[in-house]
Amino acid sequence: MQNHLALLLPVATVWWTAGYLADGLPRMAHARDLRRHAGWLLALTLTGLGLTVALPIAGLATVGATPVDRAAGGLALTAAPALAVAIWTVRRLRRLRAGATALAATPRTPTPHGLRAAAAHPLIGLPLQVTGLALLPALIVASGAGEFVGPGVTGPAITIGALGVTAIGVRHALRHNRLAERALPQRAASARPAGALHV
């Protein structure tokens, strides 16, 4: 195992765990559970952002091609999704946790559909999971498995990655829309025709 793989694995583990927790967030049936999971997810997200920023800063402080420099170079693909996490996901998680806290006075208070829809918003789960996905190429290279892959694999790998991101985004959007529809006020099952006569 190369030295910089040992530096990348903790970063990847934090992002993958955050992506997993984000996927389960809308399934929390009680407000207290939602508050607890949102708190864990927020802590993991801030940890992931801290590690993602700390490695490049540590690389600047070293001289020559050290393992820290190689690990920092492997984080290049994560820059855009991690920035999206910092701008949108952190703010939404704070709001979600505050909303769940307001309803978590009793242990069995059910989570309203509106809060579950907010938990399923694509800007919470998608950036976290894409950041974790963006770490895969760096881990493959750091593990040495990249030496067995031919040069013609780059194009298909980019295509597969783009399709994966699209599939994740569509899944989050569909789940968010389904929960948001449940949060809308229910319309009357049958409306009286405009010209109906009263008997």
Distance between the termini: 84 Å
Number of helices: 8
Count the strands?
0
Instruction: Give the strand content.
Output: under 5%
List the secondary-structure elements in sequence, H or E: HHHHHHHH
Which term fits the overall shape?
Answer: globular
Describe the structure.
- The protein has 199 residues and is mostly helical.
- It has one domain.
- Helix content is 72%, strand content 0%.
- It is built from eight helices and no strands.
- Helix 1 runs parallel beside helix 3 and helix 1 packs antiparallel against helix 6.
- The longest helix has 30 residues.
- It starts with a helix and ends in a 16-residue tail after the last helix.
- The C terminus is likely disordered.
Blueprint of the fold:
Elements: H1 3-24, H2 31-60, H3 67-74, H4 79-103, H5 113-119, H6 122-134, H7 136-143, H8 154-183
Helix pairs in contact: 1-2, 1-3, 1-6, 1-7, 2-3, 2-4, 4-6, 5-8, 6-8
Brief rundown of the structure:
The chain has 199 residues and is mainly alpha-helical.
